[in-house]
Amino acid sequence: MDRLELKALGKINLGLDVLGRRENGYHDVRMVMQTVYLYDRIIMKKSKTPGIRLETNLYYLPVNENNLAYQAAQMLMDEFHMEEGVSIQLDKHIPVAAGMAGGSSNAAAVLFGMNRMFSLGLSQKELMERGVKLGADVPYCIMRGTVLAEGIGEILTPLSPMPKCYVLIANYYRPLLNYDLLKSGIYVQKSRLF
Q1: Cα angle vertex 20, ends 134, 146, to 5°?
Q2: What gap in Å lies between CA 157 and CA 104, rounded to an integer?
Q3: Which residues pair with 55 in a beta bridge?
Q4: By the 8 A CB rule, do 20 and 28 touch?
Q5: Active-site residue set
Q6: How far is the C-alpha of 148 from the C-alpha of 107, rounded, in Å?
Q7: Which of 4, 3, 6, 11 is nearest to 138 (CA)?
């Protein structure tokens, strides 16, 4: 397989409890996450030229090792000593820094895509173990669905699917940094979808 087109689905938090803060700066949480059908489109192509080439439709996104999708590809290329390269076209639709796991979802899709395109033979669990090294939401973005997340978000328990419904997502068009939200106490109270 030389070309692969993927949908990196976003997520919302249906409920979030912050249980405490760890010494490393991460917060212990208990939350219910839900995949939504708002996605970034990722096109991956094998290249005979070694390395990673990342392009995006948003001029302000990094297209180097500061991008999680790039980091995901680099992680597997290093681990499996790949001599071929990969070209990644990232068409962003999930709002950036909106708490919808856009970057994590991109990393998850690239891990999945690299595994499939280069026939690495990694299981979902093995992809999730690698994903947590990139970010706490990456394992969830590999799993998808309705999930209870605990720890820093990496301990995942599948839940019964949420009923099909419409969800209104309003974007503030200002980056929401999780650290700032947690520090301000906005996330301390339980949130509800309805």
Answers
A1: 55
A2: 18
A3: 89
A4: yes
A5: 11, 137
A6: 21
A7: 11
Under a CB-based contact definition with an 8 Å cutoff, are residues 7 and 39 in contact? Answer: yes
Place of tokens 């947590």: 132
Residues 141 and 8 sit within 8 Å (Cβ to Cβ) = yes
First to last CA, the chain: 44
DSSP state, residue 75: H
User: How many other C-beta atoms lie within 10 A of the C-beta of residue 165?
Assistant: 7
SS3 (DSSP) at 155: strand
Q: Count of CB atoms within 10 A of residue 104's CB?
A: 27
CA distance 112 to 123: 10
* Residues 12-39: tens digit of each pLDDT: 999 888 888 889 888 888 999 999 999 9
CA–CA gap between residue 18 and residue 53 (Å, rounded)? 38
Q: Contact, 43 vs 92, CB < 8 A?
A: no
Whether residue 139 contacts residue 132, with contact meaning beta carbons closer than 8 Å, is answered with yes
**pLDDT, tens digit, 9 for 90 and up, residues 150-181:** 998 889 999 999 998 888 887 766 655 555 55
